[in-house]
Amino acid sequence: MASRTKYRTKQRDILVEFLKTSPGVHLTANDICEHMKSCGESIGQSTIYRRLEELVDEGILSKYSIDANTPACFEYIGKDSHSDGGTCFHCKCEKCGSLIHMHCDEMEGISEHLMGHHGFRLNSMRTVFYGICKDCMQEDESRV
Amino acid sequence: MASRTKYRTKQRDILVEFLKTSPGVHLTANDICEHMKSCGESIGQSTIYRRLEELVDEGILSKYSIDANTPACFEYIGKDSHSDGGTCFHCKCEKCGSLIHMHCDEMEGISEHLMGHHGFRLNSMRTVFYGICKDCMQEDESRV
DNA sequence: CTAAGTGCAAAATGTTTGCATACTT
DNA sequence: AAGTATGCAAACATTTTGCACTTAG
Asked: B70: nearest CA in chain A?
């Protein structure tokens, strides 16, 4: 979880800068590659993958792995936001694919329960709740 | 969620039969391939993948996709068991990789909360909680 | 000057697909 | 007989890695 980078490189700065401009947005490694290309700031994809993983370790990014066929996506969290004030949970709709962000106090009770009763320290940045969102549920009902 | 298979084949029967003997166990497609080979009941891997996916749709199996580098794993649930009696939650340790099963009433409150307050119908079979397990936490502490 | 980071192209991995063959009904 | 499933091998997509080269400190 600690910082691993020894050197500060141009590529790392460009990457972090870009991510910082899109807080709350989910980006795949490929999205980022494309963006860089279209900016003329081309960074090699291996570097992107390497830095991304590192930033996750540092707690600056969170990573969501939906499944093996969907590229992982990354979201800027920032160094500060996870001090404890605003844990963020995510729900992924299995139907329409939308990813819903939740800042919910009640949900934070889960962490405590898991810790207290199961000795498990939840990483809420990495955990994604799968299910069907409101909109898709309504569609289902009206279709019957 | 509805049955999709039209024909009942030998391979499907062998597969279901094997899965049925290991309820609550997590198996990867590869585990199953290997088992079949070692049994002399070799089933092609494409068939295994195809049937597995189908069984998930039918609600007989649940599938956990940890991330792109980890093969998905499948667990026998059975046609009956998800009537509502025993929702199963899973915690995945990010450190040692172990997958912990939880049959916990309190956790089921999450489903209700998500439904009631966020209009989201949780699929607990597909949801995995990431974090650090008890054992790894102790190791961490003793190492400092 | 040395350690670390970059980027290409190649490898690795898990999963899916095309197609000829075989099986179910 | 018609429709479906099988199984091989090839295709895929994402991510990782080997290595020569560049850059940061």
From this structure: A68
Q: Which nucleotide is nearest to B66 (CA to C1')?
A: C14
Return the number of other C-beta atoms located less than 10 Å from residue A58's C-beta. Answer: 15
pLDDT in tens, A3-28: 556 899 999 999 999 999 987 788 99
Q: Find the distance separating the first CA and the last CA of chain A, reported in whole Å.
A: 49
Residues of B in contact with A127 (CB under 8 A): 127-131
Confidence tier at A86 by pLDDT (50, 70, 90): low
One-character DSSP codes across B37-51? HHHT----HHHHHHH
Give chain A residues 63-92 with Cβ within 7 A of strand C. Answer: 68-69
Rounded CA separation A46/A33 (Å): 10
For the beta sheet containing B27-28, the strands, ordered from the edge strand earlier in sequence to the opposite edge, are B27-28, B73-76, B61-64
pTM for this structure?
A: 0.74
Q: Read off the pLDDT of residues B44-100 as tens digits, 9 standing for 90 and up.
A: 999 999 999 999 888 888 888 777 778 998 988 876 544 444 567 778 777 766 777
Nearest to A26 by CA among A69, A57, A84, A70: A70
Residue A100 buriedness (CB in 10 A; 0-12 / 13-18 / 19+): middle
